[in-house]
Amino acid sequence: MKREIRVGLIGHKFMGKAHSHALHDVAFFFDLEAVPVMHTLCGIGPDVAATAARYGWRNWTESWEAVVANPEIDAVAVCTPGNTHRAIAAAAARAGKHVLCEKPLALNAAESGEMLAAARQSGVRHMVNFNYRRLPAVNLAKQLIEEGRLGTLYTFRATYYQDWPLDPAFPFLWRMDKSVAGAGSMADKGSHIVDLARFLVGDFAEVAATSEIFVKQRLEGGVPREVTTDDAAAFVARFHNGALGVFATSRMAAGHKNALGFEVNGSRGSVIFDLERLNELQVYFTSDPREAQGFRTVMVTQSEHKYIQSWWPPGHIIGWEHTFVHQYYEFLNAIAAGEGGSPSFEDGHRAQQVLDAIERAAAEKRWVAPGEAEA
Amino acid sequence: MKREIRVGLIGHKFMGKAHSHALHDVAFFFDLEAVPVMHTLCGIGPDVAATAARYGWRNWTESWEAVVANPEIDAVAVCTPGNTHRAIAAAAARAGKHVLCEKPLALNAAESGEMLAAARQSGVRHMVNFNYRRLPAVNLAKQLIEEGRLGTLYTFRATYYQDWPLDPAFPFLWRMDKSVAGAGSMADKGSHIVDLARFLVGDFAEVAATSEIFVKQRLEGGVPREVTTDDAAAFVARFHNGALGVFATSRMAAGHKNALGFEVNGSRGSVIFDLERLNELQVYFTSDPREAQGFRTVMVTQSEHKYIQSWWPPGHIIGWEHTFVHQYYEFLNAIAAGEGGSPSFEDGHRAQQVLDAIERAAAEKRWVAPGEAEA
Amino acid sequence: MKREIRVGLIGHKFMGKAHSHALHDVAFFFDLEAVPVMHTLCGIGPDVAATAARYGWRNWTESWEAVVANPEIDAVAVCTPGNTHRAIAAAAARAGKHVLCEKPLALNAAESGEMLAAARQSGVRHMVNFNYRRLPAVNLAKQLIEEGRLGTLYTFRATYYQDWPLDPAFPFLWRMDKSVAGAGSMADKGSHIVDLARFLVGDFAEVAATSEIFVKQRLEGGVPREVTTDDAAAFVARFHNGALGVFATSRMAAGHKNALGFEVNGSRGSVIFDLERLNELQVYFTSDPREAQGFRTVMVTQSEHKYIQSWWPPGHIIGWEHTFVHQYYEFLNAIAAGEGGSPSFEDGHRAQQVLDAIERAAAEKRWVAPGEAEA
Amino acid sequence: MKREIRVGLIGHKFMGKAHSHALHDVAFFFDLEAVPVMHTLCGIGPDVAATAARYGWRNWTESWEAVVANPEIDAVAVCTPGNTHRAIAAAAARAGKHVLCEKPLALNAAESGEMLAAARQSGVRHMVNFNYRRLPAVNLAKQLIEEGRLGTLYTFRATYYQDWPLDPAFPFLWRMDKSVAGAGSMADKGSHIVDLARFLVGDFAEVAATSEIFVKQRLEGGVPREVTTDDAAAFVARFHNGALGVFATSRMAAGHKNALGFEVNGSRGSVIFDLERLNELQVYFTSDPREAQGFRTVMVTQSEHKYIQSWWPPGHIIGWEHTFVHQYYEFLNAIAAGEGGSPSFEDGHRAQQVLDAIERAAAEKRWVAPGEAEA
Predict the structure, then answer these.
(1) What is the ipTM of this complex?
(2) 3-state SS of chain D: helix, strand, coil percent to 5?
(3) C244/B234 touch (CB, cutoff 8 Å), yes or no
(4) Which residue of B115, B365, C195, D182 is 20 to 30 Å from A240, comparing CA positions?
(5) Cβ <8 Å between B154 and C268
(6) How do residues C114-143 score in pLDDT, each as one tens digit?
(7) CB of D203 within 8 A of CB of D215?
(8) What digits encode the pLDDT tens for the residues A244-288?
(9) Domains contained in chain B, CATH given
(10) Which residue of D29, D316, D318, D326 to mutate against C (max C Cβ within 10 Å)?
(11) Is the pTM of this model over 0.90?
């Protein structure tokens, strides 16, 4: 019998669905050292019981404290709005639960630092769900970089564009409230591209930034309410290794639904990625024969590519949700191994330091080094 | 309590995995009138029991006859090589089981006609798994055609290219044996594009065709064996509605992994599709303002698009496997409704008539009308 | 002083403009053994004199016979409708003029054979303006094939789609009259892809074909007139080297303006080309490392690429018209050398034999070998 | 007889060739109020006479002062390195010559301001060759913006990537010397995207920036020399109208040959452009029906598109060089009209102010408003 990991999941909306499905599917496809048990789903609202039943959870509750306190539960996943992450994740860690927390890890680095400390102190496995690290194409980019096949890294650029609230009549949501969400596109979307930059290029030295709220009021239940998180942000960065970075986020970029794109340029090659075509990576090598150089569209669906062997034959593409399956594969394996688990709360905390620096840089109109306030 | 449909699945390899997963996932995402029970997995080999356990089947067996004879089983899915479809599917239908059979439906139209007759006689639901009809993008194409937004259809072209046995050292497989597989790329790949042509354009009037085996011998256990199914085929067609079609299939097309592509051109617009980017449909309308006409890349991931509401927000792409989930959604709903179910064995039989005509046209070097031999 | 070649150009419309401009530009960019003199422009209509003046012709006339008879003229370019090619080109050749004739070379192989014989007998240089052989990207494809980098060729596919007369209200033109144009899209567009197939893959063994006229009547000066040339055609082919080919042409393919596309698949690689992105060639090699295989988009704008050194730095793209400049570069060099000149009337004649075979195959609904009638 | 404009061209290298060809071709394709005469080519080196002869110049000289002083000459084009623009262009203007000057207009805004003053004082036509304003696709973007079809503009992003000196063994060039070139990629490439931002979005309010020299020494005649202009730069901007901008330039971006790309996002739509596919514009409208929204690839080759009517039928693409022909069309028409001419030295000066602000922002690590030093 394999070891079982009894999971409690806090949050039953969009992310709750994605996490539930990953738990539902991971053992179907992957060989695991420890298998998950869908123990308890926690959410608030009249639909929690039905949702739990549908997704295959054994129990449900409206109390996250009950999940954290339940001795039957080994691991907790946190899928709630950002302003609750610190309390839930830290409590879970202190209660000895392994924790997988949604991104961005917290509202600010003070919170994420506390979460990291709590997790370290209790010795649990701790991961932040920067799920795009789990894309086969991103792993191919990482591999090429680590093997030196792009050479010395010079420049990085990334955008994360969506357009869901483009219509000014789109209503006020919690993501537009600074006290709940922390920041807008800069945090919600920016955290992903900041993490990918850290994963692929390295740590940030300093940033300059700006942001804007284009639609300043929206209706909530028919009542106008001030939007306090940014609709779009733009920032430039210098990395410790000398590379330059340029970043743009927007939730008001007409025509883009989930358009996370990045490019890495090095002395020996480049890669380009687009989340809406997540099974592909554009790759360029200077070592190709001169008459036949060009960006090649690699279908990252070969058995040579990370995670793919568990799925389908070449060319049979996977979807967005599969990143969550991969994340649980990593999380469960880390729990079984009693070590590792990446991206960890440390990665989440460092990304948070960058996000804080971006926000401060925009507010104070100056270059800011991540963590400067803490030094 | 919802009605339960107890399913028996014959075949536990690639297609068996895809069907099992669809059954595993369909109720997670979709509201069903009848929910599936994964009753029995049937396969041959030492790994059947382990596979059944992993995928969540309650029972397993090596005897398809036992599945067909089991009164507990309501529906049977057939995922075995083509030369066994007729026997299994017809027996299942005669035993009163609803049947979902892999494509192509049979080795030839005589067989598929028998299967269709058996299914009709017993009054069961019968479907053939032309799963690409279940793609949201293909449904968008269909919708545009049905609404007249492409106008009168003029031309259709389709290719289905793969390259898995491109290396002459790739070993002999059952798909290369005419007695087991019927035909090669012409049937295995061609059946999909023939079905899509029927779905989108209409019935075939006549075809001319040719095919070739490029690597004529391959090793099976170190022993050379003659390849008897085509590596590539090419055919042209006239449709009853006056449209022209051109088709190419190959399993030796370097660089293509699962490249099913098609284009439909009408008097008012065109659509272009590529399976390796299955969340997209290229759409052109002549009614756009002249200075801004062009093929638009529709991300077929909006809630307006068929099946998408059950998945994720816009831009969060789905994968190849999701077509199987959609197929079971249709199959289970048809069973619950006691009517319908498309594509049916009749579609499978008609596609088979076209495939037979293609094969005869290639062999006899003349134009052949589907079903001519039967007339 | 360099040798001068005094050119007479017959035809002053679209092709006349393209040829005039090529003569105007060729010595600006290319080192030539013999330089062109724009001696006489011949056309019919009130605008010939003005056109000649604008394009830089020294003289003009309405009589092609006068051009052919003029002893000052060394070379003649033929840019008139297809039904006049034979008379003009053969007369020019017999008068000792070097000839560059527009494509397709003639209305049928009887005519083109006579033209070839005339040119051979008089010993002049003779070329047919299959200008797409002059694309750097097509030359890169040719180079890769000749160097064996695509291996044994297996399959070829090509389409040539336009949509200029898509609107049924588009008026009757000479290209819709069989007696003037020979055939419709099958000849006008098909001749290009047939020639490219011959250039890249080799000679055709046999073809099967079909075609259709979708809009059967159009207005000419307000009066309905029967369209007698095809709107679209589709054909399959076997090549002498064992490769298979599939072809489609249409002037009614909504959304396509000048969309000549082809793909060549061999045992070691593939190439894909699209005329609307004529500076690019998609190239795939099986020899790339497995984790980084994919079609690479080669910008065919490097000094390593044919003709490019005379133009601009890498990435500075050239346009459609540049193919004509390249053609005159080849034509003038052949005249200076007293030998060579490709594609020659022989290429034009062989393409015509294929076109005739296609037309006969469509009319008689059977496979036809090019030149069979002549054997 | 049409008015003739006798042109003197200073500079006979890459830009000299592009300007010469534009003068050679403009009257062939365009109806002009005043036609150019290629009077004198000025350059330094043993090849000036031969170059002048080849390109069709009537005279040549090594003295730009002679060109400026020559009363026969009506207009002067300046194609020399940046550190000579001020002297030549200002002198030409003061001598009453109309001036078309290469970009960036000068080394800094002090110089460009002086040039603008000189041109204004003498009343001549003055233009800066931001030739990408002359692309049909860019004009379509401009038209859509001006007609309000993109709505309120929110975000702009642009990159200009090349890779010509990527190899550290690539030798030292004048473009790497700050005293001659002003800046590196930030000025050479950045000036184009700054101008396009001004053309499409509007004036810059302030910028933050950074830059880097990745290869700090290169060989000049075998001797190491310090590179003093940036290899890459990154900057963010706020526009006066509230839009945000993000920009990146590099001459060390592996795989990019001449990759100027930009995107404009507004409340009602977006456009995306790529110079390596300069005949295309990606266009998105929120007003499209919801099930068929997407970026459409407009082939900007219709007669409805600016400048195209003078070239070829739809789908017959033009090349990079054609922008220069269009620029001379505008320049000559402005001279004939005695007014207008855009982009003018004022545009060149304002772009220079932005470039100066970028450079200062990078050096001083703060936000800088263009023109702040002059206030």
Answers:
(1) 0.96
(2) 40, 25, 35
(3) yes
(4) D182
(5) no
(6) 999 999 999 999 999 999 999 999 999 999
(7) no
(8) 999 999 999 999 999 999 999 999 999 999 999 999 999 999 999
(9) 3-132 (3.40.50.720), 136-277+279-318+352-364 (3.30.360.10)
(10) D316
(11) yes
